Predict the structure of U32 family peptidase.
Amino acid sequence: MQTSNHLELLAPAGDWEAMRAAVANGADAVYFGLSQFNARARAANFTLDELPKVMDFLHRRNVRGFVAMNTLIFSDELPDAEKFIAAMAAAGVDAVIVQDLGLVQLMKRIAPTLPIHGSTQMTLTEPRGIAFVHKLGVERVVLARELSLNDIRKVTANTDVPVEVFVHGALCVAYSGQCLTSEALGGRSANRGQCAQACRLPYELIVDGERRDLGDKAYLLSPQDLAAYDHIAPLIEAGVISFKIEGRLKGGPYVAATTKTYRQAIDAAVANADFRLPRKDELDLAQTFSRGLTPGFLDGVNHQKLVRGRFPKSRGVKLGTVAGVSRLGVTVRLAEQLPVEELIRAGDGVLFDIGTPQEQEPGGRVWKVEVPKAHPSRRVGFAEVTLTFEANALDHSRIPVGCEVWKTDDPALRKKLEQTYSQDKIARRQPVTATLAGTVGGPLTLTFRDATAVWPGPLEVATKRATTADEIREQLARLGDTPFELAGVTLDLPPNVLVPKSVLNDLRRQAAKSLADTVLTSRRQAIAEANALTSLRKSFTPHSEPRTPHLTVLVRSLDQLDAVLSVRPAMVYCDFEDARRYADAVSRANAAGVPIGVAPLRVWKPGEDGFQSLVVRAKPDAVLVRNLASIGYFREQLPTATLIGDFSLNVANDLTAGILLAEGLERLVPSFDLNWDQFAALMAHADPTRFEAVVHQHMPMFHNEYCVFAHTLSNGKDHTECGRPCDRHRVELRDRTGANFPVLADAGCRNTVFNSVPQSAAEYVGGMRKLGVNWFRVDLLRETPEQIRPLLARYARVIAGQDDGRTAWRELRALNQLGVTRGSLQVV
């Protein structure tokens, strides 16, 4: 078991209130965002001008401060990012949490000693990917939330890079860094901190073209929240060093409750003491924010438990069920065996779950809580209570017997939590040893570590009573308003001297302030290269000579492959659910004389090397690389194959592109987060001939470890129990507008939910050609062989310059039942 000095509790702060709550309740470090470049754009965040004040506040309380700069950065934003980096270094930021690889490179050039933590947005799930980012300068990694305890053990056993995990808060249904839903539906990218939370919307299940009745399940992509307070000890044993609480959009009471809980859990684990959160504390924790609490993936995949499906928002705590309704009140059968006053009080907010969370459900503030007369004592739990409400505040006729009752608000609890941070008390202190030295007739010197304060004296021999060592220690220990605590005192004084208390107090204040100022100054990072971006860009000269355009096609079945081979594109890529068919696909393409690439898993978890080996054994001409772990692996295993970096590598700027090209990738698919202006900015600073633009596709929106097929069409918790309904059924999710979103499984049993409407960049191809791009890709989804030839013929004309794209656009709109969209390239 590690010591507390090596472990970290990392709490969120979306504003000053939350920051004070985190500090007061025992956080070792706090992470927060600035006005740009952070994945919680809707949080209040902090301005760049506030940053020195924020870091001063944290450091004077012995708490570290991490800035979340965890979004993709576009090429035209890199100059602004450069200014942010310099400001963070000057302010003494303890670490920066980063998603973008190019930003890592820029930071290491500007401020080499500024620590960098790889965000969970990097989708790091395997030691090879961690090794890749560590080589760039990342010092700690935040693992994907989809890893189990066993997965984490396998990761830490094969890397020396410190590992951080989320232990509490909201769970995204998709892998962080791999969700394009908000971008696809509204141009608001989750990779840019603008998630529109489409996962929290209701969906109908369409199976083989027919609506499947799921009863009260409607929120099929909305997971419950993570709570791992009882997993802290095994996580420490697994090698985790930092425990992260999600919640920069949540308020101070939530931050206070979660920080306090995990402080207790970590301290207990360090002391080798059993930790069990009392039931009342569990309920209080859920009350601050909860969609239902779950261990997430830490205990392994469980598709039946992760998503409950009844409601998408926090409901607090389940109070019980309705046992009776009258015009005077509602009788509730309580769900907990706790004293009534601990469960419900006048003033609490309640909601009656009638199964319509998308509408206004009945609820309100409790006016009075009545305990049955047969049980006059309030010191034991009661089976039932009657809740009364203010006159006309509640429509009793809408409340059915048997419906669940939720306590949505507890003002007394909120006040109690707010009191924990209402006074600015130092919760974390750093031990210091004091040395007090002097000679008779000379000065008196107090040293705290490397900070010294001097009283000129003269120090005198006592005429009555000398100052004792205990009295000196008592005065020096009064460090209440500082981030220090006295660990010990060394005295180098002649015998029988008099040291006035006023002198000791003054020396203590001076030395403590000097030490605190020294600590603050020491945390500032030096700027090594002021014009790093210019320097990096000077090292690259783009090639702009005209090139012959090439059309590539991605297929998802052997039938599609056969149809595409007859068209003879420059290359065909296979993205099959069953990777065992890749060898057959390569054989067919070789016979047709068409170069072929295959796609390994988009996410590579520990123990999944077998899927990669199927790609190697197929001996393709190219590999469509989809994660950082795969780069070195396929470079080694298939040294003659062309490696093409797919969209999931999130190439949004020229620095990231340069890093990946230097690692041996031949071409890169630009991030789907780019609109036209951002795409053009990328091409202006990079070699456009090294990019492959996807010009037709159904946008891959969600990419999930959670399986819709298993959850809805089986009772199995994972692939060993589900019976593989994905092999037998065709599934879509239908949203409130009637749009159907196809769901496909991959070889690792992960699901991808695709946009219902294809997007076409036909009208942008001419502009791309002018920028120097000469590789263009069409991604098929469920197109039949009969639909493929005319579709590819249209795009072949466009890239050859025989159609400006407008004709193709009109034809596609006419042919497709749902039409087409211009997609993410369109500037909104």
Residues 317-356+359-419 form a domain with the Elongation Factor Tu (Ef-tu); domain 3 fold (CATH 2.40.30). The mean pLDDT is 92.
